[in-house]
Amino acid sequence: MDKVKKLPKDIEVIWRLNALLDCTILLAITLIIFIGKTFVSKGMQPFLLIVGLVFLGLTILIPLIEVMLVNYHWNYWTYYIDAQQVELRHGFFFRKQIIIPIARIQNVTLKQGPILRLKNLQKIVIETAAGGNDISGIKNDEADNLKELIMKLAREAQNDL
């Protein structure tokens, strides 16, 4: 693991599905607002109409932006693992670099929900005393190998202290 790696291309499908799920949730909220508008007093109806129109705009705008930015998000999400650290980099407008010293790692967990399962992907959660960070969307076999590698390096680093 001596080089910077990218997430598999399949994660883009998952991110698009998440955008669709966001759209569905916002649409449900919008419908509840418009239906609820008929059951309130006449004084509240203009307010709920405005709130409903705002949610309708968000229902269209937010998932559209999410889908448009999927390629950029994938291009700027990388990770690097060596004997001293796990380095995570992501973000295209606001870049974030997380460096986790191997000696500080307490646990590595693999998680897989139904959406990740569609593409045989898993999330690797790297836990330290300060919290957890994750690498989302690693292929199943690679995720198992990375988990074993990180835990092996962590045990060796803690034995050296």
From TrEMBL:
Domain YdbS-like PH, first and last residues per copy: 74-150
Is Methyltransferase tagged as a keyword? no
Q: Name one Pfam family in it.
A: bPH_2
Keywords, A to Z, come to: Membrane, Transmembrane, Transmembrane helix
Report the domain of life of the source organism.
Answer: Bacteria
Q: TM segments?
A: 13-35, 47-70
InterPro entries given in the database record: YdbS-like_PH
Q: Does the keyword Mitochondrion apply?
A: no
What sections of the sequence does the record tag as coiled-coil? none
Question: What name appears for this protein in its UniProt entry?
Answer: YdbS-like PH domain-containing protein
